[in-house]
Amino acid sequence: MAHIADVLIVGAGIVGAACARRLSERGLSVVLLEREAMPAAGSTGRSAAGVRVQFSEALNVRLSAASIEEYRAMPQAAYRPIGYLFYVPHGQWAAHREAAIMQQRLGLPVQVLEPAEATRIVPAKTTGFAGATFCGADGCVDPHGITLAWLAQARAARAAKVRSERHAAPRPVAVRHGVRGSPFSGRPTGSAARAG
Ligand SMILES: Cc1cc2nc3c(=O)[nH]c(=O)nc-3n(C[C@H](O)[C@H](O)[C@H](O)COP(=O)(O)OP(=O)(O)OC[C@H]3O[C@@H](n4cnc5c(N)ncnc54)[C@H](O)[C@@H]3O)c2cc1C
């Protein structure tokens, strides 16, 4: 079986594009297979496009903060820091407030507010809410723009050796770092198409 790439990635969503970019930057050749006619045709293109650091796990908070920093410096991401405001009911307030304090310790601009203070940001009836949190660095991005930019960077890093092939079913491939042989079956039935 011919060796066609160091790494095979199935799916040209934002995750596949991120993997293709990082692996290509490290000098690996990548083949990226996508069954649709264009990248970002799955969840990526249908998402609400929100990005936020307000999570309860520190690892998620750090990952999100690093992502937002990258988006901030990337015109194609069209990052808009419009902020996320959470009104939190009494039963969830203790855990939510604890998470907000952890986010603050990580250096993030998360505010802990009384419900009445939060109404100055987004008016709401505050009955039943124990508190609110707001982070002005949270916001939204352009998932299509990010995916296409990372695919372009992947191709540039490997002198256009990243390929996207339209197909109906994954085909057998050989991989250098992994199990030699194919976990897949079936033959390609679509036409080849370059993503991005
Ligand atoms: C309604 C909605 C709202 C969301 N809102 C947000 C949000 O606000 N913020 C946020 O961070 N996340 C949000 N998400 C989640 C986010 O969209 C996903 O986590 C993210 O897009 C996943 O990216 P992905 O690349 O893993 O998957 P996808 O974007 O789904 O990409 C997978 C790709 O694989 C392709 N594929 C699948 N099977 C095969 C195959 N056998 N052969 C070839 N290609 C194949 C698909 O066609 C697709 O292009 C939302 C999701 C939805 C559905």
Count the beta strands: 10
Shape: elongated
Largest sheet descriptor: 3 strands, parallel
Give the fraction of residues assigned to helices. Answer: 25-40%
Strand order of the largest sheet: 2-3-9
Which secondary-structure class do the elements indicate? Answer: alpha/beta
Uncertain runs are: 172-196
Strand content: 15-25%
The set of bound ligands, ions and cofactors reads:
flavin-adenine dinucleotide
Helices, by number, come to 6
Arithmetic mean pLDDT: 85
> How would you spell out the order of helices and strands?
EEHEHEHEHEHEEHEE
Q: State Rg.
A: 21 Å
Oligomerization category of the chains in this entry: single chain
CA(first)-CA(last) distance: 29 Å
Summarize the SSE layout with pairings:
Elements: E1 3-5, E2 7-10, H1 14-25, E3 30-34, H2 43-46, E4 50-51, H3 58-72, E5 84-89, H4 90-105, E6 110-113, H5 115-118, E7 129-135, E8 139-140, H6 143-157, E9 163-166, E10 174-175
Parallel strand pairs: 1-10, 2-3, 3-9
Antiparallel strand pairs: 4-8, 5-7, 6-7
This protein binds flavin-adenine dinucleotide.
